[in-house]
Amino acid sequence: MTTPLLSVENLSVAYKEGDHHTRVTHEVSFDIAPGEVVALVGESGSGKTTTAQAVIGLLPENGRIEQGAIRLNGEDISKWSSKRLDAIRGSQISLIPQDPTSSLNPVKTIGAQVGEILRIHGDRDGKVIAARVAELLARVGLSDPELRARQYPHELSGGMKQRVLIAIAIALKPQLIIADEPTSALDVTVQRRILDLIDELRRENNTAVLLVTHDLGVAADRADRIVVLQGGHIQETGEAKALLIAPQSPYAQRLLADAPSLSTTAFREPRPGGGDAIVVDGLVHEYGLGRKKSFRAVDGLSFSVKRGTTHAIVGESGSGKTTTVRDVVGFGRPTSGQIRIDGTDIASLKGDALRQFRRKIQLVYQNPFSSLDPRQTVFSIVEEPLVNFSGLDAGARAKKVNDLLERVGLPEALRKRRPRALSGGQRQRVAIARALVLDPEVVVLDEAVSALDVTVQAQILKLLDDLQRELGLTYLFVSHDLAVVRQISDTVSVLQDGRQVETGTVEEVFLRPQSAYTRELIDAIPGKRSLALA
Amino acid sequence: MSRYIIGRIGQALLVLWVAFTAAFLLLQALPGDAILIKFQNPELGLGPDQIAALREAYGVDSPLWAQYLQALGNFLAGNFGYSVQGSVPVSQELLANLPATARLAGFGFSLAVLVALGLAFLATLAPFAWLRSAIQAIPSLFISVPVFWLGIMLIQTFSFRLKWISVINPGEWEGLILPVITLAVPISAPLAQILMRNIDEVSTQPFVAVARAKGASPGWVLWKHVAKNALLPTLTIAGILFGELLAGAVITETVFGLNGIGGLTERSVRFQDASVIQAVVVFSAACFVAVNLIVDLLYPVFDPRLRKAKGAAA
């Protein structure tokens, strides 16, 4: 067997916390052959990013390699000085980062940032650099590269920025690219195009890729081999195909079962449903842009949701999802069209009537890390709406809050804690409890599971499903993730640039999509390869 | 954009008017006045009639509102009145004292910026953790040193003990060294603190990791990526510190016995020379407002995100 390009041997990394070091990865070992794609898969806290950072020598200041070796072409680079590593970073190992929005310097032009890697590694001639930058930007599929080179990051979309970062990563034709969640911040269709681009460039230069991802579907589609990490331990390593068909470790089995994009579960059983809980009719929302100009964020959206069922609104960023949600819960005023919740037209409500109406419709936000007041305890977060709205005394409130926290599966021990001390899944349970405490009829879930790991996501989806059945709730489920929508929804509307391109039952839309855009969205769901295997 | 500039200039004028009015009212509220201080001296041998005539001539006994309107009108016309003590037009006094203060303030501020930058960069790049934290502690020390005490200590040490810099009739530039240091130290401290915090914050940004992954050395990253991003928020603080600079100049000039706006302020306060004080207050306020206006207008030059986007901004 030839020497692997990269060989990680018994790598243990520890972080300094106070006086002692805590290990976060434990004797991780894997190889990458030239031109091979290896995926490091795991949930948050699994040590996948730490391992990747160790390989490129960019551990945070408080991190250190405690044991093991990282061999690049047979030579152990784990003990190299930072200065020596500078010579191979960018030229032999490069990085495609996670979040394109914050990964480019906001005050430097695109051209300067792409050209920088050439300068660092010895190019001096400005003209040569400018020509090479334009060539690279064109290579990653950016139109009008000379113009792009003069633009600043904020003038580009997320997908374009990620292309720029890919241009930087391939500039010096490195042997290994570390792609750390390269697409998790992007829309699905953009995600697919970016992964295709990485694939293509990799083949062109026979570059190996270490793909770090939480998304087993992405790993299944793109990797030759998969390394599954949990809590810093390798659970399983194997050929992608074999691992997906017959995972050996219990953890990999669970991960596979929980990944919405890989599950082949049937569509939801049709719910009986009652009368219409939400009716949206011809919703139009325009934002004024200075004098006489306006931007139509939502353009003629109509749907209705039967009581006790779930309607999903699907679309990519900028499709008008958020504007729709704000109008439905009564935070925004539509330009035209009607929204009736339980028969009441929201536009007719003002002042206190509008405030009382809010009891009926509650919102769960996307980010469980910022939607909870860090200074309140879990108990008081859930209690607060009751204090505002109900005439209940303290004892009755406490009973209600405790019952509800029990119902959403939060152990008693956590109720006096503050959000900081909770995991992402626990926080989202708190947010759900807070939404339910006023006995609403409609709950709007705005990307409510998007920030969660797959296994946690599966638990929260199950919780939402149980609550709906027990309490007869109506959900408006806003998501960019079609795989999740397929699991939880009865009916769905697809939005593109503010227009409704498709609406119907989930089964109709998924099996017989009418618009090209919906088909593209469905095709972009990662995990196709593994489904094809099954 | 032009509408924004006009609005900002309008705000600036409003601030000036408020400063003028407040200064006027406070000065009127003081008991006694410059005329009494100067001319009631028995050695001059002026009788009550003559003093009353002088008071009439300076217009200090007319009703408050009339004096106010008169003063405001004069100010708008660029006439700052006469210094009672110096018997010259106030504008002349200001002009005579301005260059010295401008020089002191200019050098003091430049030194403060250099010291702040030096401290902040050292605190980031110094080789040992203990050294970095030692450097990080320096600004807190600087901030707690009173200006007058620092000035006296510097004179003690460098002039009297070490005899490096003479205090009696020093050369024009030699005499500036200690006052500039005295002025710079307390101004450099908040600048350095904010810079250090910004550098720490910017250093955790993903684009810094990307730059490191390109193979850039820590020094390159600090200089080419972190510095500009960390300096941007410091601009505002620098504008606000300009006020400190003016206040510091008063004390510094007094301690070192320099002629300048600071010295003039000190003298005119001692003698209740209202028109001089009034002019100094308005002049300082104008400088302060102008500096901060310039800072605000400069932001888009340094930060491309604040330039008006072409077409629709979402």
Folded structure, characterized:
The longest helix of chain A is centred in the middle third of the chain and has 18 residues, at 188-205. By secondary structure, chain A is α/β, with parallel strands linked by helices. Chain A has a 6-stranded mixed beta sheet with strand order 6-7-8-3-9-10, sandwiched between helices. Chain A has a 6-stranded mixed beta sheet with strand order 16-17-18-13-19-20, sandwiched between helices. In chain A, strands 2-1-4-5 form a 4-stranded antiparallel beta sheet, covered by helices on one side. Helices cover 37% and strands 26% of the residues of chain A. By secondary structure, chain B is mainly alpha-helical. Chain B has helices spanning 2-29, 34-39, 48-58, 64-76, 90-125, 129-143, 147-161, 174-203, 206-213, 218-256, 261-270, 274-302. In chain B, helix 5 (90-125) runs antiparallel to helix 6 (129-143). The A-B interface holds A 56, 58, 82-83, 86-91, 93-95, 97-99, 102-108, 116-117, 120-121, 152, 154-155, 165, 168, 289, 293, 295, 318 and B 205-207, 209-218, 220, 224-225, 228-229, 232, 302-305, 309, 312-314.
Share in helix of chain B: over 70%
Count of β-strands of chain B: 0
- Can you give the mean pLDDT of chain B? 84
Q: Unreliable segments of chain B (pLDDT under 50, ≥5 consecutive)?
A: 310-314
Largest sheet of chain B: none
CATH structural fold name of the domain at 100-271 in chain B: MetI-like fold
Overall SS class of chain B: mainly alpha
CATH superfamily of the domain at 100-271 in chain B: MetI-like
Alpha-carbon distance between the two ends of chain B: 18 Å
Percent range for β-strand residues of chain A: 25-35%
Give the helix level of chain A as a range of percent. Answer: 25-40%
Instruction: Report the CATH topology name of the domain at 276-533 in chain A.
Output: Rossmann fold
Reported for the largest beta sheet of chain A, the result is: 6 strands, mixed
Count helical runs of chain A: 20
| Total of helices of chain B | 12
Based on the structure, what is the oligomeric state of the protein chains? heterodimer
- Kindly estimate the percentage of residues of chain B that lie in beta strands according to DSSP: under 5%
Q: Which architecture of the domain at 276-533 in chain A does the CATH hierarchy give at level 2?
A: 3-Layer(aba) Sandwich
